[in-house]
Design a protein that fits this description.
By secondary structure, this protein is of the alpha/beta class. The protein has helices spanning 11-25, 41-45, 54-58, 64-67, 87-94, 97-105, 122-128, 145-157, 174-177, and strands at residues 30-34, 68-70, 75-78, 110-114, 133-139, 161-168.
Amino acid sequence: MPSLLRTKEKEKLFFSINFAKTTANFKQKVLLIDADFYSPSLTKQFRLRGRAGLSNVLTGRSNFHDAIYHATEYLDVLAIGTIPPNPLELLRVQGVESVIQEALETDYECIIFDCPPINLFTDSRLVASSCDLGILVVNSNKTREEELSNAKKLLDNSGVKAVGAVLNNVKYNKKKYDYYGY
């Protein structure tokens, strides 16, 4: 598996891949899906550009099983595929329910969608509305409280239960945490 990128722009990707890898390490079959049509970092990270992926499966141009990349024994990846001219319309018309159903029939125990920021793109809300749970990835240096509150409301309005948030990009201050001891 390629090494992980740790730039500020890749925090969401870093979490998605590591969450998927950790779940797979517990011998649960995981499908990690790149659903970020605007910055398909997951596809780039696994070097899957040019491969059939989510968009090809949704449009019927590719078979679900043929589009899957087997990263490890328990971790599979579905790349973004061909970037459509209007990703929002593709998701609005096709939805991701068929992909989720196909994944469940393939015995995946955990399906993770890597989506663009929910506050900026309606696509994320469409994908989220098909999911059971949502996790917000928050940049400690960039995300303001009102943005986080708005993201939570958008998840709630999409019918998704937000089970938590992951705080990324926190700088450890030895002096601040020294009182906890060794």
